[in-house]
Amino acid sequence: MNKKGHPLLSIHSILLMIFIYVPIVLVMVYSFNNTRLAGDWQGFTFDWYISLLQDRNVLDALMNSLIVAVVSTVLATIIGTIAALSMRDLGKRLKAPMNGLLYMPIIIPDIIMGISLLVLFSQLHIPLGKMTIMIAHITFSVSYVYVMVSARFAGMGRQLEEASQDLGATYWETFRYVTLPQITPGIISGALIAFTLSLDDFMVSFFVAGPSSTTLPIYIFGQVKRGISPEINALCTLLILVSISLILLSQYFMNRGRGQKKRNTLPF
What we know:
Its main location: membrane. Keywords: Cell membrane, Membrane, Transmembrane, Transmembrane helix, Transport. By secondary structure, the chain is an all-alpha fold. Helices cover 76% and strands 0% of the residues. The chain has a single domain (59-259), classed as MetI-like (MetI-like fold, Orthogonal Bundle), CATH 1.10.3720.
């Protein structure tokens, strides 16, 4: 017998969705408004999106964001995957505290991480720029990749790996043909989340960015201080759409990984 939840819970969920998504929808709607006056709808236009493509400052900020996001994602994915592989064979006594350390960047507020990294770079006399932003993004992205890959390890077991070694496969053959294909959805999902976080990050980047390394979120913040313009609404809309697409793609790979059936035969 199916039990229905209390009606107030449904109302609460609907109100929560409205509270979260209505402001986002308004930003997207007014990015097509044919006037610079906020809140005054004058018609539909794509002019603000066209002007973005002609704005050199926007293109420079976009290029900086893409460079930082690509480099930090690649390195964070490699480091996070290796961390998940290492933690898998770690003893229980060491695994619990190590897990806590790896989860720490997810728990720590962004402003604290940004300040702490700024102090570190200052003490090491490292000039602020794209390199410091990359290091900062790798620092918090590794944890997310680790979580995604560890989740894949938790659900796959060791039966196929043990069977491959019993049949004479070496460690690297087992990893290449058995382990890696099974954890690939988790690696891809972690990489997509890391890319999304890097592309959208403002707080940490604000503290560790140099004068010539402005990213899109920092550029948007600087423009908003002068007033919300239709170009900013258009830029925010593009970032929202890219972020949603990447999150949905990450979820697709995770669901695809969960739905994969274990094969009964080995490829060697």
